[in-house]
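Below: protein 1.
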Amino acid sequence: MAYKWIELTVSDHVAEVALNRTDRLNALSYELATEITDIFRELSDKEEIWVIILKSNARIFSAGLDLVDAASRGLIGSPKALLDIPSREKNIFECCHAIEECKKPVIAAVHGMCVGAGLDIISACDLRVCTEDATFSLREARIGICADMGVLQRLPFIIGQANTRYMAYTGRFFSASEVEKMGLVLSVYPDRNAMLEGARKIAEEIKESAPLAVQSTKEVLNFSRFVSVKDGIAYAVHKNMVLLATADCREAMTAFMEKRKPVFKGE
């Protein structure tokens, strides 16, 4: 597919998805949200993709929701017009679901400001890294609304209830060192180039594991957040009934017996 606001590069099973609405600092318009939804659903089904890195080509990661675009679409208007938002503006909400539901692990690489909807987007990713100059703001309360794209539901699983409430209630900007202590990001890097190299190194580490097993593990982790431990285990056992019959599982067993590194093919 051709994308207007996203740049896609693929190399050795790793896809790099760059938000490329640079003139608007990747402010989330309906059109950009639709492209994010589409590309993550597309990549989810591509067998040759094992890991995804989500990054920005703008001078910051994201300025948040595009309020000009929102106003032009009736998101800021009369109560009657607002009643149609859930159905009419579906992809504004779907873009984060598409990232979370993508079969492949997603690493967010954040530099500069990550505001509002940008934080919604990275909270839907599996892992996050950032630069020293990165700042994060759950901004919605500062503009008179509450976050409704999933960050209030996802972030507590990442940084806990207290930190989520602190970010949400204050709406202030949190530094890279602050969010690292919270557990929002794995690592902080001195600049964008170092950060991208760090993200690529994590992708390479993930590629050491069997891709189908990684994808099943992501599904089990996502599923297990909302069910009992027993139900989560049952789902994992179901996944293993399939994985035990894969070529990659046989290769892992053979490589172990032969005392060599396995060569996985995603089969």
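Below: protein 2.
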Amino acid sequence: MAQSEVNPSDSTATELTPAHQAVLPDAPSAAKESQSSSFGKSLGTAIKTIGEDELHIVKSPFSVSALKWDALAIGATGVLIANDESVLHQVPASWHNTSINISNAGVYGLGAAAGGIFITGLVTHNEHATSTGIRSAEASVDSVILYAALKAVLARQRPYTGAGEGKFFSGNWTSGSFPSGHATFAWTLASVMAHEYPNWPMRLLMYGAATAVSTTRVTGGVHFPADVFSGSVIGYGVGTYVAHKDRQKGPSPHSQNRIRRAENAILEHVAIQ
């Protein structure tokens, strides 16, 4: 009896085993590993998506179908650069602070609109709204990479900086003037939301806000006209590409009116579709 009290029988040990196995000390660690693996997979997918976007965006201007649009954009930019300083210095200095505040408010407002659409989609389980928010974020990252690289390479001197004002390759690679970041962001977000909700009130609101941001960067004395024009073109192109990629083609051009056919032609060539 004493021996049985000291050494329980095998049957007793067998009955205790499941109770001890019910709580596994390393179960939380397994859950953490699963979450970490899921996060890593999502991050990898996001990086791959952004990389594919950037590759497509960089390659698209060199396609044969885009050459005439490239020539038009480059020509317009060249004309603006030739007249940048004379146009900029006609703006009264008293407009600067108000214009800068308007441009900042416009960018923040567009960002808040995209975020609000995303949150509304999560709350109401609206897949289209959620997708719009995700596409807005994706397009914004694409634009950041593109415009930051151009700023660093072209290194244009900012307005009202004294000697070398408006000069390219001036060594100002950390805060270059060309292209305008505000204009790029504004047109990126505006084009995504306008193409996701293609009605005239939405388009007027989005593109009106983006135009106000671009204009006030010039009247604010922080960018030249060529800076905001190039940023607007880049932002519109990137936003429209992200909004329309991985989707089926729309109805036949013959079933659309002239305005819609013209718009689709621009989307195909200028908007990097």
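The radius of gyration is 27 Å.
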